[in-house]
Amino acid sequence: MTLLEANEQVFALLDEEEDENILIKLPAFYDYAQKQIATTVDHISANLKIEVEDSSEIDLNELVKEKLGKKLFKVQKIVSDAAHEHVFGFIYKFEKGTYRLFVYVYPDTISEETDEDYEFEISEEACPALVYYAASQVVVTDTDQRQYYAFLDRYNNVLQNISDTRRNNVVVKIVEV
User: Positive or negative CA dihedral for 126, 129, 130, 131?
Assistant: First the structure.
């Protein structure tokens, strides 16, 4: 989903014509929601292959920023035949060898300057949550709070469904008898 598509859906939910005062606020709402979603139920995965020539301590946050242009959220796992150990925070000590790093990263910041064709970095199934969150924030100051709670409930339901689906996946192994 693009920023433009999300804007159109928010205005459809609000049953309003496009309003410049609302358009200015939407990027901040999308940014907050996308970061919240990416750090809770819909992680943005990345992986890197690195070659370590000499035993050294490496700040993985700096490495991910340099290689991917992203801020590191969490180290999922490190795969290698060579030894490594966690030192502190995102700093790891690596022995000489080849490593495959599996990490979660934060999404890019969305601001008023973000292009309308910007694609949200969370999965397509999580994008409707952004729309509901943004719509809820637009109406949060309304006297009648029913719309606010309805949009916020839909936001939470989308996230809960994603969480439940990913948690309850059943793996079936077929064994020949």
Answer: positive
Residue 123 has a pLDDT of 93
Helix and strand element counts for the chain (H, E)? 5, 6
Residue where one domain finishes, among candidates 105, 125, 156: 105
The answer as to whether 173 is a domain residue is: no
Encode pLDDT of 11-37 as tens digits: 999 998 989 999 999 999 999 999 999
Take residue 21 and report the two structure tokens written for it.
Answer: 């005062």
- The set of long-range contacts for 155-162, using a CB threshold of 8 Å and a minimum separation of 24, is 155/33, 155/129, 158/125, 158/126, 158/128, 158/129, 158/132, 159/37, 159/40, 159/41, 159/126, 159/129, 162/41, 162/42, 162/123, 162/125, 162/126, 162/129
The per-residue pLDDT of the chain, averaged, comes to: 92
Domain that holds residue 134: 3-39+110-167
Question: Are 132 and 161 contacting, i.e. CB atoms less than 8 angstroms apart?
Answer: no
Say what the alpha-carbon torsion angle 17, 21, 24, 27 is, to the nearest 10 degrees: -60
Q: Within this chain, do residues 77 and 120 fall inside the same structural domain, yes or no?
A: no
Q: Are 140 and 153 within one domain?
A: yes
Provide the terminal-to-terminal Cα distance of the chain, rounded to the nearest Å. 47
